[in-house]
Amino acid sequence: MFFLVALWLLFGFLSFGPAAFIFCYMRRKSKDSWPTRVDSDYKPRVSFLVPTYNESSIILLRLINLSRLKYPRDLMEVIVVDSNSSDDTVEIVKEFSGRGPPFSMKVLVENDRRGKSHALNYGLDYCQGDVIIISDADCFWPSDILEKAMPFLADPSVGAISGPKILLNSEQTWVTRVEESYLKWANVLRLGESIAGSTVFFEGGFSAFKKEAFDRFDPYGTGSDDCGTVIGVIQNNFRTMLVPEAGFYSAFPESFRGKLSIKLRRTNQLVRVFAKYLDLLVEGKVKTTKITVVPNTFLYLFSPMALVILIALTAFLVLNFPLLLVLFAFLIIPSIRFYLYEVLESNFLLFASTFAVLLGKRFSIWSQPEDRTGLTREALQRVNLI
Ligand code: GDD
Ligand code: MN
What we know:
Blueprint: H1 2-29, E1 46-52, H2 59-66, E2 76-82, H3 89-98, E3 104-109, H4 116-124, E4 131-134, H5 145-149, E5 158-162, E6 165-167, H6 174-196, E7 207-210, H7 227-235, E8 239-242, E9 248-250, H8 256-282, H9 290-320, H10 334-358, H11 377-382
């Protein structure tokens, strides 16, 4: 019995202790002043890479959104890389390009579909910009995003920046509200990490990479075009930072099923990303970003296992000593229930993904998620995005 309780306490600590410590530390860091030089005159030549696969329902809205950007016309180019969509995405893009948009435009079509990162790498060879910005078809930018974000790349030590995702449908269902809360905390962490050194989390809705800071997207084939690319930038000893001013808009699936398909794919990618970091750490190839790489590798690869063992131990103890249920009285408080639910859900997904990765399962090529429904012309007009 004593041994069991000691074990229970140990796994309780391993499951929550490091996470709580890291969170508190990063939250404090997130309030510090910005650590690198920001120069509002810094206006690099930028290439937007827009990967598309069967996006005929929104690609036109996305291009209209891009054409509203406030940035010198001769410093922008848009490169759409389509992987042979079976709908009329390419025709729509070509038609738009023929109407004289306020930037130069190229439309590339791959012969077959080999995933988003493959498409981005194909497009990369055609980019003439000094900064390459990945931009999903279902993510929308405020027109001043470049004016606000580019100055954060002015410092030579900064290799890449990303922005926080803002949900247009956060109030739609319980699923979108949980995601909103997750994003809020995740962004505090990412900001803290950026100020402390670098963040390892980027978003495909707005990720801007200096050309000199990376060779190709997702060099290690993790399936993550954003976080996977960050690995290479960090290895080249550049900083990678979340810039709160670079917020972009998107939507999230309303249903749990839709959420699950996105999250399963994402956690599967992240497990691969952190397995790679673990490799590089062991080989001594991560030099400048240990302060965020080490704790995240622990949180993503090991905490979920500790938590699953903790749950098994708890179940065993409660079954044998039902009185222990009294200890769970704190679950009466709704906010605690809410956060506990989030923690359990994300850790279960990570745990499942680790197994999927160990079994060699990949989710790099995906079907279109259900998050397009909230992205109507009216919804976008309401927030002045088109
Ligand atoms: N060319 C090409 N080829 N484009 C593709 C392919 C492909 O095989 N698959 C997807 N895309 C395009 C989509 O058309 C869209 O513009 C963009 O890639 C992102 O696809 P989504 O289907 O919207 O991805 P998501 O919203 O589930 O995931 C996003 O966020 C993740 C992080 O949370 C993406 O940015 C992911 O890359 C990212 O990991
Ligand atoms: Mn998306």
